[in-house]
Amino acid sequence: MGDDVRVTVVWASAPRTVHEVVLELPDGATVAQAMARTGWVVGPVDDPHADVAASIWGRRASPTTALRDGDRLELTRPLRVDPKVARRQRFARQGARAAGLFARRPGGRSP
């Protein structure tokens, strides 16, 4: 192994908007160092990383977690709405007019 680790940092700044960058960092670099190296302001201006959660390949990571070669560091925003509440609201708006996933589509196979 060399003296550098190569990591991919991904951040969803808004719905349907994803930023991705590949970084070469010194061996032993941490999540906080990778976040700083991106230059992205991913939180409030006074503390750019206050509301951001970090995970490596989907597993929660602290700012002091050491990165390894090939890691995918994911920065996520806090949820604005509970997914269960959002689903209920969507269903209330659309009503019971369709069977959702089980609705028959034109040209679909019959059971």
TrEMBL record:
SUPFAM superfamilies referenced in this protein's UniProt entry, alphabetically: MoaD/ThiS (SSF54285)
InterPro entries in the cross-refs: Mopterin_synth/thiamin_S_b, RnfH, RnfH_sf
Assigned protein family: Belongs to the UPF0125 (RnfH) family.
UniProt name for this protein: UPF0125 protein Tther_00002
Organism per entry: Tepidimonas thermarum
